[in-house]
């Protein structure tokens, strides 16, 4: 096995736990984006210790949002972190389009709106046409034109089974504007193959959920992107913080609880959104359950699954309540 000799990236994605933030809507027939709710939720997540935030990914229902809505959300959350006193806080924007041109346009929009990095799924509408040549060309062309550093997003479950293997990712890692990968495929072996070749400065490897964060870190990865953080931001980031501090036994103990709680998030986005409303909504002053509904045509969780979610994720509530909020230099009341 040979270590890579590619140069370090000019702007690597900072290490840590990132929340792929859900989209929150007004309780109206058209479910317009609720920017005030997004502002409050953003500050809640940052105070909860998240090391960065991802908007307009899968949990953000990116395919259901218009380009204009995406821009307004990024502008809103950049203001939220600036008002909180951390203007340079990492904001990652999803730029996944079905064409190279669309993805480049989304990257340009995100950069103008205030995003720091871009997250990119492979195209998948005509899955049989996405050959290896087309796939590598897509990422290179978008990265060539993107004003933001690009993080590859590998999630076969939402891309008609298209799965970048470790050879594909190794080939793309040499691009100067491709800085890392989010492995929602859950393939720890793939993570090990990549971390054995590349340093984090060359190409960073992130797990796609917090239920295998500890193994990801042990394997040489540098963090994760986890929907669970929408509900329990403190506990998910704490697994990482304890590991970094060398408190591995404590980290593993908390990881075990997090992994069991995250099982609900694996079932559906509707359950993640319900849990965010149930466990965090009151803290944010967001008490209308419809704020946390998926956007139509997708449906909210039924009563049976809601009850199961409360029981499954509730195992983490005590841990979450024990962890204090992060305090920043500027205090705001959570509104515009």
Keywords:
alpha/beta; 8-stranded parallel beta barrel; TIM Barrel; 336 residues; disordered C terminus; 8 strands
Describe this structure in words.
- The protein has an eight-stranded parallel beta barrel with strand order 1-2-3-4-5-6-7-8, surrounded by seven helices.
- Helix 3 (100-113) links the parallel strand 3 (91-94) and strand 4 (117-120).
- Helix 3 (100-113) runs parallel beside helix 4 (132-145), helix 9 (248-267) packs across helix 10 (269-284) and helix 10 crosses helix 11.
- The protein is 44% helix and 10% strand.
- The protein has helices at residues 35-47, 67-83, 100-113, 132-145, 166-173, 188-197, 213-218, 233-244, 248-267, 269-284, 303-313, 317-322, and strands at residues 16-20, 52-55, 91-94, 117-120, 150-154, 178-183, 204-207, 223-225.
The gist of it:
With 336 residues, the protein is an alpha/beta fold. The chain contains twelve helices and eight strands.
At the first level of CATH, what is the class?
Alpha Beta
Beta content comes to 5-15%
The CATH homologous superfamily corresponds to Aldolase class I
Annotated CATH architecture: Alpha-Beta Barrel
- Helix percentage range: 40-55%
Gross morphology is globular
Mean pLDDT across every amino acid position: 94
Count of helical stretches: 12
| CATH fold naming | TIM Barrel
Number of strands: 8
Low-confidence stretches: 331-336
How many distinct domains?
Answer: 1
Please summarize the sheet with the most strands. Answer: 8 strands, parallel, barrel
Structural class computed from helices and strand pairing: alpha/beta
Protein name: Aldolase
Pfam family, one: DHDPS
GO molecular function: 4-hydroxy-tetrahydrodipicolinate synthase activity
InterPro entries: Aldolase_TIM, DapA-like
């Amino acid at each position: 096995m040979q270590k890579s000799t590619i140069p370090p990236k000019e702007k690597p994605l900072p290490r840590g736990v990132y929340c792929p933030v859900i989209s929150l809507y007004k309780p109206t027939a058209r479910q317009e984006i609720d920017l005030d709710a997004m502002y409050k939720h953003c500050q809640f997540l940052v105070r909860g210790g998240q090391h960065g935030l991802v908007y307009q990914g899968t949990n953000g229902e990116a395919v259901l949002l218009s380009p204009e809505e995406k821009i307004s959300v990024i502008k809103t959350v950049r203001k939220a972190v600036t008002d909180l006193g951390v203007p340079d806080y990492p904001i990652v924007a999803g730029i996944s389009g079905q064409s190279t041109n669309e993805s480049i346009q989304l990257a340009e929009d995100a950069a103008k709106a205030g995003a720091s990095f871009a997250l990119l799924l492979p195209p998948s509408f005509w899955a049989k046409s996405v050959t290896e040549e087309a796939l590598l060309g897509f990422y290179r062309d978008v990265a060539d034109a993107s004003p933001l550093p690009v993080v590859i997003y590998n999630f076969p479950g939402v891309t008609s089974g298209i799965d970048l293997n470790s050879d594909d990712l190794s080939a793309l890692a040499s691009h100067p504007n491709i800085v890392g990968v989010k492995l929602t495929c859950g393939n720890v072996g793939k993570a090990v193959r990549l971390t054995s070749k590349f340093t984090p400065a060359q190409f960073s490897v992130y797990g796609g959920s917090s239920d295998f964060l500890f193994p990801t870190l042990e394997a040489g990865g540098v963090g994760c992107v986890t929907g669970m953080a929408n509900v329990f931001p403190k506990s998910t980031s704490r697994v990482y913080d304890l590991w970094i501090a060398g408190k591995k036994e404590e980290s593993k103990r908390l990881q075990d609880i997090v992994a069991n709680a995250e099982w609900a998030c694996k079932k559906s986005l509707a359950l993640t959104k319900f849990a965010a409303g149930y466990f965090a909504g009151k803290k944010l002053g967001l008490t209308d359950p419809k704020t946390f509904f998926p956007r139509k045509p997708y449906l909210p969780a039924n009563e049976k699954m809601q009850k199961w979610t409360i029981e499954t994720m509730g195992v983490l509530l005590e841990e979450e309540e024990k962890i204090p909020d992060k305090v920043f230099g500027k205090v705001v009341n959570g509104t515009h």
